[in-house]
Amino acid sequence: MSDQIRTDIKTAGGGTFAGGTYGDVTFNGSGTINGDVDTITYRVNGAGTSNGRVKAQSIVVNGTAGFNGEVQANEFVVNGDANVRDGAGVGRLVVKGNLSIGGSVAAHEVELRGFLRMGGDCQAETFTGEGGFTVTGLLNAGNIDVAVQAQSSAREIGGERIVIRQPAGTLGSLTGLLTVFAEKRLTVETIEGDVVWLENTTANVVRGKNVTVGTGCIVDLVEYADSYTPAGTAQVKEARQVSGAGA
């Protein structure tokens, strides 16, 4: 980070501030920043809006936050509700509440405990947890392991290891409460990976070296290179062994 002196922003009631370089930004009441922000920590405990790009080492949203620009952070934790108008570049993204991102996301690690919506692609090394997600474009990660707690969807999913599971049980979490009436199913056009293990998934095409299609799955076509294991309750129209299937 820069060696320049950084002042802090801390609101207990409300306030409007200009963009700039700050030390710590904390909104305990409500606050708005007009312009780009470069800060060490950015914490919203009440309601906060940034009309510009936000760059921070750490962002924590415990209340309601709007980011009307791109977000760059080493760690971005959403315990409440947050909306990012553009895309995000994040080291570690943790979603325990609800997060909507208008563009694409690039992250080292995505930990899902709530609901995540993305208007573009999601590129990560790991994408794990339990909750729900909507990815308008491609979800691509080396390791994907998600217990689907809500109706979820993606256009395409790719990775080395892809596991989509039923939830182990009803959670006492916010996600569990919000999605108790929703169908806990993933709908996707294409899934492609080395190891693919699925439950409660509807897909047009599933490709992999080793493919397991478990309970609750509805799949039009499975293409596998080495092994294919269907559950008795899975609905698979066609399965065929091919060479070179998988990511």
Number of helices: 1
How helix-rich are the residues, as a percent range? under 10%
- Average pLDDT: 92
Proportion of residues in β-strands: over 45%
Q: Span from first to last CA?
A: 38 Å
Instruction: Using the alpha-carbon principal axes, give the shape.
Output: elongated
Rg measurement, Å: 20 Å
Q: How many strands?
A: 18
- Spans of at least 5 consecutive residues with low confidence: 170-181
How can the largest sheet be summarized? 11 strands, parallel, barrel
Structural class: mainly beta
Provide the spatial order of strands within the biggest beta sheet: 3-4-6-8-10-12-13-11-9-7-5
The run of helices and strands is EEEEEEEEEEEEEEHEEEE
Features:
single chain; 247 residues; 1 helix
Fold and architecture overview:
- This protein is elongated.
- The chain is mainly beta and 247 residues long.
- The chain has one helix at residues 174-178, and strands spanning 7-11, 16-27, 30-44, 47-51, 54-61, 64-67, 71-78, 81-84, 88-95, 98-101, 105-112, 115-118, 122-148, 152-165, 186-198, 201-213, 218-230, 235-241.
- Helix 1 links the parallel strand 14 and strand 15 (186-198).
- An 11-stranded parallel barrel has the order 3-4-6-8-10-12-13-11-9-7-5.
- It is built from 1 helix and 18 strands.
- Helix content is 2%, strand content 70%.
